[in-house]
Amino acid sequence: MSESYIKTETHDGYRTVILNRPEVLNAFNETMHLQLQSTIDDCESDKTCRAIVLTGAGRGFCAGQDLSDRDPVLMGDSPDLGLGLEKLYNPLIRRIRSLPLPVICAVNGVAAGAGANIALACDIVLAAKSAKFIQAFSKIALIPDAGGTFWLTRRLGEVRAKALAMTAQPLEAELAAQWGLIWQAVDDDQLMNETAVLAQRLAANSSRANALTKQAIHSALTNSLDEQLDVERDLQRQAGRSGDYKEGVQAFLEKRAAVFNRE
Description:
The protein has helices at 30-45, 72-75, 81-98, 114-121, 148-156, 158-167, 173-179, 191-204, 207-220, 225-240, 243-253, and strands spanning 6-11, 14-19, 52-56, 60-62, 103-107, 110-112, 124-128, 132-134, 171-172, 184-186. It is an alpha/beta fold. It has 2 domains: 6-203, 2-enoyl-CoA Hydratase, Chain A, domain 1 (Alpha-Beta Complex), CATH 3.90.226; 206-253, Orthogonal Bundle (Lyase 2-enoyl-coa Hydratase, Chain  A, domain 2). The strands form 2 sheets. A 6-stranded mixed β-sheet has the order 1-2-3-5-7-10, with helices on both faces.
């Protein structure tokens, strides 16, 4: 049996998923990818799980790809790095983005290379103030992948995206929050407490509304205003026909907390 590189903790309404290769700053190998994919599937199939927290064990979130698995000496003169992206990283990014559950990333230390970009793929990112985001690719003659060029350009603009990608300069969490790359930077000793409060808040929401909101905002990245208005119309129809909408309105009128079911 292979070693467990992913740990999970079950809480009321959500699960915490922990990257668990702390001796290599939670760098990804293929086994870890496959275990993470399986864990995400389990979270989605569990109707009591209404949100996911992703974090790392030890002193860092994730150092990206384990380069011992990508040694050109062992891979030959013309390694196909695109194959690993197509097989492992790209499906993971797409899975996180399409998952009908909110995914919170708690960045507890360095997030480098693909590790940074997996974090940025999550719906809401909190980071310890000591955390750093590093597009380390240029140091080994590569380009940002796992969505890196997308997140940087969309959220920070061309100038900052190019500078961070080409210089591999670490971006501190507080500045990342000021720039709008992540949601919030918090004191190190409060990271998991703040994350738990956020996860509980999202878990108390309508799961259907969370999923539809996520879908609508993703659509807005590429839609015109007219197209997005149509998306909002169509998704609001779905939301309004759910039992959660009825419960939400009744709870409001009765001045009580709504109790939503995961549909």
